[in-house]
Structures are given as structure tokens and as C-alpha cells.
Amino acid sequence: MDVDVHGAVAEGFEPVREAFAANFALLGERGAAVAVYRDGHKVVDLWAGAKDVDGTADGPAWERGTAQIVRSATKGVAAAALLLLHQRGELDLDAPVGAYWPEYKAAGKEHTLVRHLLAHRAGIPALDRPLTPAEAADPDLGAAAVAAQPPVWEPGTDHGYHAQTYSWLAGELIRRVTGRPVGDWIADEIAGPVGADLWLGLPESEHARVGCVGPVEAPETAGTLKTRPKRAVAEAYADPDSLTRRAFAAITPLPDENDPAYRAAALPASNGIATADGLARVYASLIGDVDGGTRLFTARTTELARAEQSAGPDRVLVVGTRFGLGYMLHGSASPLLAPGSFGHPGRGGALAFADPESGISFGYVTNGFRTSVTADPRAQALVRALRTALA
Length: 391
Fold this sequence. Notes:
Layout: E1 6-9, H1 14-26, E2 31-38, E3 41-49, E4 68-69, H2 74-87, H3 114-118, H4 133-136, H5 139-148, H6 166-178, H7 182-194, E5 198-199, E6 214-215, H8 231-238, H9 243-248, H10 260-264, E7 273-274, H11 276-287, H12 299-305, E8 310-313, E9 320-323, E10 328-329, E11 342-345, E12 351-355, E13 360-366, E14 368-369, H13 377-390
């Protein structure tokens, strides 16, 4: 698919534009945007394609302000909220979760620490009874479900990706500490001060900016660029009784991501909506000053965010993963820019991260979701091009 690429790149960042255009020609991209900041100044701002994944040449085009659902890239924003509360002295990372949320002490979870939730060590990646999409959107029902759930492993002793349950673990902890809905708090304390187009709970006034999403596949001509899962990973996703399948099926059936009701809900694990620039601006604020916005993290909090908390075989994702406090760290399962980078992908496409050493922050959003969980080929092509530009 040949498209006109809109936007601009600073001198030296031309490889990112070339890779972005190649994603449409070689990797089945339908509509997307990428933004990069360096030391708080925008150096890449590109968009192309159709606003809707099934859009035609006569349909609405992707524009500068087009936003998309970013799935698990939302987790990085929720982690920023929790770490900001810690930075302000309102949340102790080494306190039991039950100190803020007494109901959570049930079923053998009384020794679960706040840092365990952030590092995917809480042992609650799945629910014995999955929630329906309507139930999942109710923060009271979601919180009650994870509070009553016995852990799969002793909290703090192992790690596994909390794909869906992170919504209610993080969201309820933020609500207990602040007394406010998580989406409202993020709007007022993160998106607003940073100047980011990012929402957890999409307001009706912004509906027209968001394109329709759907699955896409890379054309067969992509050859070796088309990824194939390893057998153990594929088997874990195929087995309905595996912890992998149960973790992703904590909401059953899967929600319709184009449903306005789902987009209006606030699920910190999965349904944030943002522009590429919005994601990049948030991450820029985690490592320094950003043009037209407020720095959020102190240098100490930035180091906390990327201090390794979990590493090795992931009991949910099956492959080896690395986590800091709420963020994926650079590794084979989540390739980022450099060893010191921290961020979060969204299953099937989106990616956002920051790299303090280079001063880079990155945001990529797409309307075409693929089967990848952590290392989408389109996002990785952009990261490789960015690495080339910096070199």
C-alpha cells in the first residue's frame, strides 16, 4: 500500500520517515502515526493512511490529531499515576496493598505489596470467573473480583503478565488513595499538565477524532519480516486452560473496541486512547522538561520506574520478560531503543517508551492490530530506524 506521508522530521531523522513509509508498502499498515521527542523537543511528527482500518481512498484520512485505542500501552500511563502518588508521598511502594484497600487482604493476599502490583508479581493474572465487558467497565465489580481472587502463586515470589487484571488492581489502588476515578485523575494530573491528547474514558466530545480499529496481516511478500510465534508460545495461547489464555480472557467475550460504551470506560490495562504525540509527550515528561508542558517525574522517580523488579520466564507470556515498576524494560520480548529504555507496548501494535540517556521519547499508534503481543514488526522497524538516526 503506497501512501502520502504527512508531517515532518528534523534533520538527521529521515530514516524514521523512510521506515514509516515502508510499513505501509511492506507490512500491511493501513493508518498510523509516530512522534518522537528529543530533550523535550519534537523531532518526528508523521501520519499517513486511512483513519479507519477498513477505510477506502474516498473515506476519511488520518489527520494530525487522529487518535486510536492503544491497548496495553495504557499500562505505562497508569504506572505513571501510581509513581506520581509515591513521589508526592501519598503511596508507599513497600506498604501492603491492604493498607489502602482493606478488602484486598482476602484469600491469602495480605502480604502483597504495592510494588508487587506494579511489577506483575501479585499472582492475580486471571479470574476464576471472567467478567463480561459490561461488568469489566464497572470499577466496583472489577475491584471486588480481584480482591476476592486467590493468587495463582505466592505474591512477590514470581512474575507473570497481568494482561487484564492490571485494570482493576491499578485503578482501584489509585481510587483508594486519591478518592477519585482513575480516568479523571489521569486527565487532571497527567494529560492536562503535559498537554497530551490522551484519555482514559473517552469523552463524547472527542469521539469524532478516533478511528475504527481492526485486524490486519502483513502481505506474504513481506517474507522474513512476517513474524511467527515459537511453538511453546503458540500452544499456550491455543490452550483454553493455560494461564496465558485465562489471563487474556479475564474479560469474556473480548470487548468491541469500536463500541463507544467501551471507549467511555476507564480500564487502565487496555483501553486508553491517545495520539502518537500524546504518548510521546507523556514519556518526555517522565525524563525531563517538554515543550509546552510540565515535567512529571523527578530524576529519582525516573530511576525507580526503570529499576528491574522482575526478570526471567514469564508465567503468562511464556517467554522471558523484564519489568520495572509498571514498565517493560528493554529485552528480547520487548525490544526498546537501548538498555536503559522503559515503556510499554500495546498488544497488536502501539508502542511508547522513553530513553533517559539519549533524551528520546517515542509514541506510535495504529488502527491495524496484528497478533503480536510485545514486539510488533511495524513498531520495531521504526525503533530500528530511530536507532540508526541517532547513530
